Every structure is written in structure tokens, then in C-alpha cells.
Amino acid sequence: MFRTTVRWIAFLSLVITGSATAQESADVGADEESLAKQLANPVASLISVPIQGNYDENYGADDGGSIFRINVQPVIPLSINDDWNLISRTIMPIISQDGFPSPDVSEFGLGDTVQSFFFSPKAPTSGGWIWGAGPVLLVPTATDDVLGNEKWGIGPTAVVLKQQGPWTYGALANHIESFAGSRDRADVSATFLQPFVAYVTSTKTTISLNTESTYDWDNEQWSVPVNVTVNQMLRIGNQILQVGGGIRYWAESPAAGAEDWGFRLQLTLLYPR
Fold first, then answer.
1. Which of 27, 75, 122, 271 has the most Cβ atoms closer than 10 angstroms to its Cβ?
2. Can you tell me the distance from the alpha carbon of 136 to that of 63, in angstroms, rounded to the nearest whole number?
3. How many Å apart are CA 62 and CA 98, to the nearest integer?
């Protein structure tokens, strides 16, 4: 399992390193600067496929477990009419975990999928605010019981943000309650909160700070990773993409959850219309 995790880390590192090298001969223009700003907006009318790798450790009672999670997150906007978009955001995790939930357990496979739909006005409000709201679904797609909850869930989700010059700031939230699934597994009652701020430089570099906090209502526990990332917009041939990474610190976690520091690698493919 460790070798599988290392291969994924090496693959994403090579993609980022190779893409950064290719940037030396890439001509990134003003359109890409606009795209970098759109990427900071979760409900922008922009087709993109973010691939995010997160490595965290110190899981389990003996702090010996580690998890490398690759989130494949396609974003697909659909125009409903002249005034409204429907934004589909999917998070499908590919998980490699070692020594968790017990020291003798290692597993690799798919986790549960979270599917969100945001109904979002095409134009900001008179005050410049951008928002979207709709349903969120938890789909039990995990390939092993240790990688998922074996529960179906549903709830509301919403996002609100404002973009002023190079700055983007706002928050995304959802709440999921399970309604079906295995009776042998615990119910899901979780609230997700993601306040964020991002700054896009004149060189199309995006510096971001966010938390991805989850509150487990049944166990009355917080999980609070704080993420700082730097991503660069570039072009390789006809493909526009954004690559980067950063660090994450677990400010709060359950007793058997991740602790201390982790890291994140990111690759986003863009398909402007």
C-alpha cells in the first residue's frame, strides 16, 4: 500500500514539475488571467476537472496510520435560461490508506461520492455578491466498507462569494443526513463549512487560504484542516491548466483522526467555452 501511495505522489509531482517547465515556453495571456479568477469561484460558468491529492498521517489510536486521497472533482455548468445556471460539482475520492482504522489494515479503492448541484444567477447581485444553492447527495460508491459509510445521504448546500480586483472571498457549506443504507453502519449527520480567500497575481498565480471543516453531530466532533496553497495558471499546447500545491495543518480532529501537518498537490484541467 505504501508503494501505491508513493506512485501516486510521484505521478502528481511529475505532472506539476513537467508542467512548470513547459511554462517557460508557454504564452499565457490575458484570457488565462480571467480564467484564474474564475477558478477561485466555485459556481463560475467554466468546465474544469480539478484533481486534488491530499496526504495526511497520524491516524488511529497509535498515530501510525496514513491516508493519501485523490479527489477527482469535475465541474460542469449548464445554462437553464438567460438568468440562471445549474452547476454540477462532483467529488469522487480515490483512497490509499495504510495502518488505519487498525494497524494491520491497508486498503486502496474508491470512497463515497459527494454530488452537489448549485442553482446560481448568471449575474451578481447589485452589491457584487455571487451565490448559488441547491441539493447535495452522498452516494455510497466505496469499494470497501473501510473506505466509506455505506449510507445514502441528502441535504442542502450553498455558496456565497465576492470578487474585488484580485481578491476572492466567501464560504461554501452543506449539511448531509443519511436516509438509507446499511443498518449495521452509523448514521451520517455532518455539516461541512469552507470559508475561503484567494488572491490572483498579475502572473496568474493564485494564493489561497481555506479551511474544510466538518462537524459530526452524532459524535459531537470537529475535523478542521487549514490549507494554504499556491497554484499557477499555464498553457501546454492547446490545453490550459493550473498546477500547484501547498500545506495543511489539522487544527482539530477526532481522537483517531489525522494530526499535525499534511500536504496537498493540485492539477486542474480547464475547458473554456
1. 75
2. 32
3. 13
C-alpha span between 232 and 15 (Å, rounded): 13
Cell numbers of 32, please? 488565462
C-alpha R_g of the chain = 19
Backbone angles phi, psi at 99, to 5 degrees: 70, 25
Start-to-end Cα distance in the chain: 40
* Helix H or strand E segment including 246: strand 239-252
CA dist 188 → 118, 140, 213 (Å): 22, 12, 15
List C-alpha distances in Å: 18 to 23, 35, 126, 136: 9, 21, 43, 36
d(CA 176, CA 48) in angstroms, rounded, equals 25
37, 117, 198, 244 from 206: Cα distances, Å = 8, 25, 7, 9
Q: Please name each of the domains of the chain with its CATH number.
A: 2-271 (2.40.160.40)
Alpha-carbon gap, residue 167 to 201, rounded angstroms: 9
Q: Could you tell me which residues come within 8 angstroms of residue 128 by beta carbon, excluding any fewer than 6 positions away?
A: 162, 163, 164
Of the candidates 3, 21, 73, the residue with the CA atom closest to the CA atom of residue 232 = 21
Give pLDDT tens digits for 63-114.
Answer: 888 999 999 999 999 999 999 999 999 999 999 999 888 888 889 999 999 9
User: Looking at the predicted structure, is the pLDDT value of residue 25 above 50?
Assistant: no
| Residue 51: predicted pLDDT | 97
Check: CB of residue 134 under 8 Å from CB of residue 175.
Answer: no
Contacts of 104 (CB under 8 A, 6+ apart): none
Please give the Cα distance from 244 to 23 (Å, whole number): 13
